[in-house]
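The freezer alarm interrupted the setup, so I double-checked each line after restarting. Inputs confirmed:
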Amino acid sequence: MPFIPHTQADIEKMLAEIGVNSINDLFAEIPANLRTGSLQKIPAGVTEMELTREMQTRAAQNDQGLCFIGAGAYEHHIPAAVWDIVSRGEFMTAYTPYQAEASQGTLQLIYEYQSMIAALTGMDASNASLYDGASAVAEAVLMAVRSNRHAKSRRILVPATLNPFYRQTIDAVVRTQAIELIELPYSEKGGNTLLEAVEKYNGQDIAAIIIPQPNFFGVLEEVDALTDWAKARNIFVIAVVNPTTLALLKEPGAWGKSGADVVCGEGQPLGVPLASGGPYFGFLACKKEYVRQMPGRIVGRTIDLEGKPGFALTLQAREQHIRRSKATSNICTNQGLLVTAATIYMSILGPDGLRRVAAASHANTRALVEKLTSIKGVELAFNRLFFHEVVLRFNKPVHEVLAQLNKAGIQGGFALTDDYPQLGQALLVCATETKNEKDLELYKEQLQKILK
Amino acid sequence: MSNIPSELKYTSSHEWARLEDDGTVTVGITDHAQNLLGDVVFAELPEVDAEIEGGGEAGVVESVKAASDIYAPISGTITAVNESLLDNPALINSDPYGEGWMFKLQPHDEDDLEELLDAETYTDQVASEEH
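Predicted 3D structure, all chains:
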């Protein structure tokens, strides 16, 4: 598909054909006050050489430091082979396949990805991915409202322990769709959602509940009890999980007696490097009975006329090019490149490798907690089990502590003072498998100095 | 030429309606509609006990090439849905006026049926669409 810019002669010929004097005349109906005019803040172009120099200067200002920030995006080791393979032209330059079935390689890769996500989450089917974890949760909420035919209401129970960024995104997406979000409080002691908090809604018409595991505080929720409570009342269960942790924790398909209905989350931990704002990808998987309510693209395996195996986009009647305004979602694309990275990452690690990453991250976080809480003025905020992230409370303003740690090359964590002011001077800290004993010890030494 | 039984009532959106002896009305899509859709692969049916307005959405029929909403011909309460379509939606193709029925409703007002098209008028509509 060649893309050839029009020459001035082409443009003039086309304008003459339609009887218009200039391209600007085509926009005449847009009022002058709505036009941007010239872009005065955009500087003139520079040469490649000058630009390279400028970017190198700026890159040198980056101080990577030691990152102990999680809060939804996690630093994991990515085997060199992952992005080496992803960078191949066949993957790197391919956009979402419009003539889908002519792109068998892309479709097969997505099919393998879907199979891996379905296995990891314990669900029957996965889509080809969504934009990010937050939008995946918002889509899961919409899916729940469409799927739950028992509930007449559009009320969703959302734990305060769900990532606050996800809660903002859900609110932005569903606010105008007459969906009511009800916040569930968390236990001050455990940092988890108590069964008592949901039992207040016994007998009420609720469409769905969101259950994060681990939750934003890194704390493990009582997923079995919460799922059973919900399923006994025909409440749709949305599991929001970190894919790395599924190597060790029970998959949502096995939560409680009947499992979660839809599982979603942020795919970044699977081979996607940390970057400010992404791009990351969201994953979403569900039980078979809900596939027709699933947003996004789905690749299926089939056989052709000669009986040979092949891959095809399937269940497309959900999508907006067929369903128009009744489509399940306005998302008709997927994060192809990042899904490619995740698929290669998962296949290189295998179930055992992923298990070791999860276990090492958990062990490092435990070791870090032990070291840091041995310092006077630092305490663990919650008493429940955690995965690879934990809330610590300081006797000093947390932003000051972070600023000083930063000077020592340590990104100490995510301050919770804005999102959870009631927790006091609280910091969310994470140590993945990328940290070693020396790193943890350095954090302890520096913190000791600061809090002295 | 489509099969358009003379004893049924029709809508311009290609549903048929039949008043049963027990006072309920059985609804499906016409032979002409199933022909246009092609092989039906999925049928989404209304909930039993749901109250539906005449002309309101009552379900979806999905074929290999399109998805179409199904509308209630008249207002009423859904009393039954054809569960066998969930496993075998192709019944809509093979027997649209028989085993391919979609749902039954208890009309709020039986006289509403009089507002629907008779076979002759529907035949004319189909004929004009085919030109």
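Quick read of the result. The two ends of chain A are 66 Å apart (CA to CA).
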